Amino acid sequence: MPKMTVRIDRDVSNRASVVTIIKNNRKLVATLDSYGISFEGAESLFPSIAEALQMDYPYSQPFASRPAWYDRNPKSIPNSWSSTGKSPHGATAQYTYTCPEDRNAIIEQLQARIERVTVAAPANTVRAYFVVQPYGSASGFTQLLAMLLVTENAAGDKENVVLGSAITLYPGDILYGMSADASTGGTVNYYLISKITEFDA
Question: CA-CA distance, 7 to 66, in Å (whole number)?
């Protein structure tokens, strides 16, 4: 049975594995990626199971698994906005986060807090909320992640929510921290916080 040598390289540019098989001084190159496997060379050179058991590998760890997302150049991204004694206003983006090219991101936590400071005349719904606009979607198309509401009208009325989540953002996706108050008069304190971890796509 002929002796075979296998070399396995990582092609970072297109996230593929390139397998080079040398058998009887003839070479077969197989490229494995998310679309499947393609060959360059005689198909007869592809090893049988018996031959694979006798292969020589130039590297001690020929098949290395891809690192988990939290080991792919992670970067912690905290976002926050607060306002004290804010008057009524329409739906307003108080901060945004856009997932950059060649990176993904996981939203790990969302927190919102609303507290009425002075009474309105009359009161209406006060909102603090988070939405995502997927990349390529129309500017008015967003997906609601979480919303906090206050409808009471006594000074000191408040609501608070902390949500653990594992929502993945892809390049170009935008997270908005939003607030709105449809009341007439009165003031409100707001807090919006999100914790995100970016990593290589």
Answer: 18
